[in-house]
Specification:
The complex is a heterodimer. Chain A is mainly β. Chain A is globular. Helix content of chain B is about 35%, strand content about 25%. An 8-stranded antiparallel β-sheet of chain B has the order 3-2-4-1-10-9-11-15, with helices on one face. A 7-stranded antiparallel β-sheet of chain B has the order 5-6-7-8-12-13-14. In chain B, strands 17-16-18-19-20 form a 5-stranded parallel β-sheet, with helices on both faces.
């Protein structure tokens, strides 16, 4: 059995985090989502993997090249939809195959349930079904799929993970997979609905925090790097090579910290936190339930909770994030959310900046300590 | 340059050797050949590129063999001149990388003895010299033959009825790979990576007997031990990985190359030398020479140490009266001109240091200390990531010479390069691809950046391009400016900014279109140029890196729109192992 991973889409609702990389490359528990997907396939002995790339494809290819497992790369020049992406992979399809979105987490147990099935779909009950394709199931068979309905008839949604016989690839019309499947089902294709085990999808940036917490449950303990004798540990901690952790740092797992970081004395890192590589945390800062990406520095006496901080940000001292229930306008739609802050890449903020449930675009510079709320577009200068 | 591959093991040798030769393709070649040892020595060789299917190789089923890619020096590219070469009986086959200088006199002497020659090459004499001394022991015959050969060589020899390969090396590259029940030999590591990470670098004068069980090395008849080294390159580094060209893949690897090199380069020994004698001479060729020029600006400004930079090919013959440390820069570590320059420096008792990308390469054995760049194997003939690695090593050196002087620039470089790689350069390419000739101009450290930009452009797009110090343009080249000769001007804030703006106005006044490379939001520059391409960064050390990457992208996409052979430009070879 082959696998086709779709990683060509940008994921516009996850902006600003998808400025430099597609959604599938956003790090969760310090590894891009797509790598978790590839792992789940390898555990099940599926080694013939095709990845469809498109948006910022150089970034994805550079990453795939660094993996130990060789994968076949196929390019979708224009992002015309998921079924179109799948057709781009057609020349590489030689067997029955599983299609997986590269930007959703799936566990190996779920793959095990579908890998023997020639024609099936993994489905999942979801509390907010209207963000997904809602599936109608009768007698264990898929009878209908409605994409992002205003009002969902059931809570059963498609995970986007389907298995198909080899010859169906030539019969996929339309641009989107659900439309294409409905066409085939009307013509008599019988597709089993199989409940997935652990499946996670991030629609909005703050959803990444839930995914991160969940994936951190699976990390392996490791303490590479140089750790001062007075570091207080509890829970599962994974620290990469070359990372220096100063005296009197408290870390409560699950926490993962990448390579060559500098964690200064007196810092406190709380559960559910992923810190990338080459990150600098200055003294007496507290970080919890957050994702901090590569090359970011956070000034002393800061508080970063329930937040996603992009690559190469520089936050001055006394930065703080605050949760407050807010209404945010994303892609023209108002969403209710409650989190600390979501910062794009290369955000730089002056000391004493307060972030309150806000989304800050890439390259935003905040010159004086202000309170930031709502959504700031890329490259805004806050004087 | 020529490449050789040898294999002794348990698998069929022919397909494996041909695959190995493909990995050596980037060295440049015009013909290729394979010989395997079954009951008899079977030889297959032909002129031209290695085809995807080689039906002739199917019948070659020995598990021991040798192969060669030839870059013609003595005798035109032809089937007859391709290696392997055999003796009169066809029982001894030889492949060779290097040049036998006394081949004409050897050939005459052998012809008098009745040997018949079938090619015009210098290599064929090796086969006949060995035949002349062969009495059933190939190792002894090769050992006795070597004293009569003058010049440079890495050779692999097989003979009927002798289940081993005999190798010898003198001033040409040779690496041995120790696998599991199989042993390989090649001109560089790329063909070995698929089979093993344990390698041995033989020294000049070594003779090696290669069997599936391993390699026995001897010198003047006495067995010697050479250390087994582990290489950290992996086979995926030499595959294109979904990129259209190796060059593009390597351009995109540069942010990682930069930070890995900055963190791991060990400039310590050179720093100690410079503390004793605060003067430095840099010798290098091509792109490495440009990196050396940037190193000069960097070290002189940051550490106040005077630096001279010489072309390696000039340094050897001009005999400058230097006593100070000499730094030799070569990506491959095998560049003949640079090796000769470092030998010349040693002859004058100068302390020598190498900066190279290849652990165990010839230059590391000549120099007293080595600084390694962490670019990994570079396959595209046009150097990109090795250049970035060299700049990173220079920044690590400057940072050690005067800690803190570079401030946060070092940490900012790889991020800024990552940002630059998202830049769209198509508008500039639209101007450049129609050009008859392009001028690249800059001042201060951006002058060598301009030189490198021009070199990249001419190497792969075949458009004539020249780099100039912006102030020099009016001393002659102005005569060449026309609307068909666009100029690329690097103009960034700093002491040279005002005068660069005047230079650009002078160029514009002669009718040449100007593409400016500057900071985002620089309205003054935008007003004087036809097209402003912006680069990220906050200070000149970061701009050097981002401007260099931008010029690489310009060259790449210009060449791509002109449909040239980007990874293997005509007439060029990756590491030039002849003078």
């Amino acid at each position: 059995m082959q696998a086709v991973i779709l990683a060509a889409g940008e994921g516009t609702r996850l902006r600003p985090l998808t400025h430099a990389k597609p959604k599938a490359m956003i790090p969760v528990a310090n590894r891009p989502v797509i790598e978790h997907v590839i792992d789940a396939l390898l555990v099940n002995g599926i080694r013939d993997i095709v990845v469809v790339v498109g948006y910022r494809r150089e970034y994805v290819q550079r990453y795939l090249n660094s993996l130990e497992t060789p994968v076949t790369v196929v390019v979708q020049e224009k992002q015309l939809g998921t079924a179109h992406a799948l057709r781009c992979a057609a020349p590489e399809i030689r067997d029955d195959f599983i299609v997986l979105p590269g930007d959703n987490y799936i566990d190996a147990a779920s793959i095990a349930k579908i890998k023997g099935e020639p024609c099936a779909m993994l489905v999942k009950e979801h509390p907010k079904p209207s963000n997904f394709g809602v599936v109608a199931v009768r007698d264990g068979m898929v009878t209908g799929i409605v994409e992002k309905p205003e009002e969902a008839a059931t809570h059963t949604v498609s995970t986007g993970i389907i298995s198909l016989p080899r010859d169906t690839i030539g019969n996929l019309a339309k641009n989107e997979i659900p439309d294409a499947l409905m066409g085939l089902i009307r013509k008599g294709l019988r597709m089993k609905a199989i409940p997935a085990e652990d499946w996670q999808s991030a629609i909005y940036p703050w959803d990444l925090l839930v995914m991160n917490e969940s994936l951190l449950q699976h990390i392996a303990p490791e303490k590479a790097g140089r750790l001062a004798g007075t570091v207080a540990f509890s829970g599962v901690i994974n620290v990469g090579h070359g990372t220096r952790i100063g005296p009197n740092v408290t870390i409560t797992g699950p926490v993962v910290i990448g390579e060559d970081c500098d964690i200064a004395p007196g810092t406190c890192i709380l559960p559910g936190t992923s810190i990338g590589s080459r990150v600098t945390i200055e003294p007496f800062t507290v970080i919890g339930r957050s994702i901090v990406m590569d090359d970011t520095s956070i000034g002393s006496h800061s508080r970063v909770l329930d937040s996603v901080i992009g690559e190469g940000c520089a936050l001055g001292d006394h930065a703080s994030t605050t949760r407050s229930p807010s209404l945010l306008s994303i892609e023209g739609q108002v969403q209710k959310a409650e989190f600390g802050a979501v910062l794009g890449d290369r955000v730089s903020s002056a000391p004493f900046t307060a972030f309150r449930t806000c989304i800050v675009g890439n390259g935003v510079t905040i010159r004086e300590g202000r309170t930031i709320t709502q959504v700031l577009p890329d490259n805004t200068l806050v004087m | 340059m020529c490449g050789i591959v040898g294999y002794a093991g348990r698998r069929r040798a022919a397909p494996l050797i041909i695959e190995g030769l493909r990995r050596l393709e980037y060295r440049g070649y015009d013909s290729f050949g394979v010989a395997t040892l079954g009951p008899h020595v079977a030889v297959l060789k032909q002129c031209g590129r290695i085809p995807a299917e080689l039906p002739g190789a199917r019948s070659m089923d020995g598990t021991l063999g040798i192969g060669h890619t030839r870059w013609a020096t003595h005798g035109a590219p032809s089937d007859a001149n391709a290696h392997p070469h055999t003796d009169c009986s066809g029982k001894i086959a030889v492949v060779h990388n290097g040049i036998i200088e006394n081949y004409a006199s050897l050939r005459k002497a052998l012809e008098k003895k009745g040997h018949t020659f079938r090619s015009e090459t210098d290599t064929e004499v090796i086969a006949h010299v060995i035949e002349d001394r062969y009495k059933g022991d190939l190792l002894a015959a090769v050992r006795e033959s070597l004293p009569s050969l003058e010049g440079s060589y890495a050779i692999l020899v097989v003979a009927e009825g002798d289940e081993r390969i005999i190798a010898a090396r003198n001033a040409s590259p040779l690496v041995l790979g120790l696998g599991d029940g199989e042993t390989l030999a090649a001109s560089d590591m790329t063909p070995l990576l698929e089979y093993t990470e344990r390698v041995i670098f033989p020294e000049d004068g070594d003779v090696i007997s290669i069997t599936p069980q391993g390699a026995e090395i001897s010198r003047d008849g006495q067995p010697v031990e050479r250390p087994v080294e582990l290489v950290n390159w992996c086979v995926d580094d030499v595959k294109k990985g979904g990129f259209e060209h190796f060059m593009l893949k390597e351009i995109y690897e540069q942010p990682r190359v930069f930070y890995e090199t900055v963190r791991t380069a060990n400039p310590g020994p050179l720093v100690d030398l410079l503390r004793q004698t605060p003067e430095l001479t840099i010798v290098a060729c091509g792109t490495s020479y440009h990196a050396g020029l940037i190193g000069k600006y960097l070290i002189e400004e940051v550490a106040g140490i005077p630096v001279r930079v010489d072309h390696a090919s000039e340094f050897r013959y001009s005999v400058p009266p230097v006593r100070n440390p000499v730094l030799a820069i070569t990506q491959s570590g095998e560049t003949a001109d640079t090796l000769w320059a470092i030998r010349a420096a040693k002859a004058r008792n100068c302390p020598t240091v190498a900066m190279t990308n290849v652990v165990g390469s010839s230059v590391t054995r000549l120099a007293e200390a080595s600084i390694y760049t962490r670019a990994g194997p570079e396959v595209g003939v046009a150097a990109t990531k090795s250049f970035t690695g060299q700049l990173a090593a220079f920044m690590a050196l400057a940072d050690r010479l005067r800690p803190g002087a570079l401030g946060t620039s070092i940490a900012a470089c790889h991020l800024a390069m990552g940002d630059l790689l998202q830049q769209d350069v198509q508008e500039a390419v639209g101007i450049l691809r129609r050009a008859r000739s392009i001028f690249f101009v800059g001042r201060g450290p951006f002058y060598p950046v301009a030189l490198e930009g021009a070199l990249k452009m001419k190497e792969i797009s075949y458009i004539h391009a020249e780099g100039y110090a912006a102030g020099e343009l009016k001393h002659g080249p102005f005569a060449l400016l026309t609307p068909d000769t666009p100029a690329v001007a690097i103009c960034l804030p700093g002491p040279t900014y005002k005068v660069m703006i005047s230079n650009i106005k002078e160029i514009k006044a002669r009718g040449a279109p100007v593409i400016g490379i500057g900071r985002a939001g620089d309205q003054e520059l935008a007003d004087v140029v036809d097209l402003l391409v912006t680069i990220p960064g906050e200070d000149q050390w970061v701009w050097i890196l981002t401007a260099s990457v931008l010029l690489q992208l310009l060259a790449y996409y210009t060449a791509k729109s002109l449909e040239t052979d980007i990874d293997k430009p005509r007439n060029l070879a990756k590491s030039v192992t002849v003078e």
